[in-house]
Amino acid sequence: MLEIIYQDEWIVAVNKPANMLVHRSWLARHETQFVMQTLRDQIGQHVFTVHRLDRPTSGVLVFGLSSEAGRELSQLFEHHKMSKTYHAIVRGWLQGEGVVDYPLQEEHDKIADKFATSEPVSQSAITEYKTLAQVEMPYPVGRYESCRYSWVELHPKTGRKHQLRRHMSHLRHPIIGDTAHGDLKQNRGAAEHFGCQRLMLHALKLSFIHPFTQQLISLEAGVDETWREMQRQFGWTR
């Protein structure tokens, strides 16, 4: 059963669990559970995808309840009229706040794009970040006698593939649990000491002007037990 955080006659939004695919894919034929199909069965009607979250990312995921609603919502995403807020736990002490303006080369999937003939192009990518809390824990990781973490708020201003994960890696503060762009020793340490078995990236909030009512909609998704347990162990209460 998915947690529905908003529903009206045009839109439905859920709190997507980590490690659940949004829809069926031939790249993951062995999977049996998908957000789109689960939600359709749960509310008894078809839903239309308008954006995606990476499989390991949790948080706010919006669907249209008609093809028209899907088109209108997709336009909001395409024209950057959605305000997105993510939370992440990253390696090390990331200080203060700032803007990452670092172009990213288009990523090709090793399987889906293996026959692509064009060279990946560099695309503008901008992310705002702000550190919310920091901690140092007395557990050795790799060659270090302790491990440091930062709780970070992220606001992507562009929508490149794996943008937040790649930008945090560029800053040398990769997101904990990121197996593609992260620190494998830190990932193993977080799993061993704090029970972290997921990517610590959560789509916390999504705000936009409703395309049919013209009212401001602000959707927020709570974090899961893994997040709550890490925050408890780190003493992060804000």
CATH topology: Pseudouridine synthase
- Tell me, what's the shape? globular
List the domain count as a whole number.
Answer: 1
Helix-and-strand structural type: alpha+beta
DSSP helical segment count: 5
CATH superfamily: Pseudouridine synthase
Short description:
The protein contains five helices and twelve strands. It has 238 residues and is an alpha+beta fold.
Write the layout of secondary structure elements.
Elements: E1 3-7, E2 11-16, H1 35-43, E3 48-49, E4 58-64, H2 67-78, E5 83-91, E6 97-101, E7 104-105, E8 122-123, E9 126-137, E10 147-156, H3 163-170, H4 184-194, E11 201-209, E12 216-220, H5 225-234
Detailed description of the structure:
With 238 residues, the chain is of the alpha+beta class. The protein has a single domain, classed as 2-Layer Sandwich (Pseudouridine synthase). It is built from five helices and twelve strands. The chain has helices at residues 35-43, 67-78, 163-170, 184-194, 225-234, and strands at 3-7, 11-16, 48-49, 58-64, 83-91, 97-101, 104-105, 122-123, 126-137, 147-156, 201-209, 216-220. Strands 1, 2, 3, 4, 5, 6, 9, 10, 11 and 12 form a ten-stranded mixed beta sheet that branches. Strands 7-8 form a two-stranded antiparallel sheet.
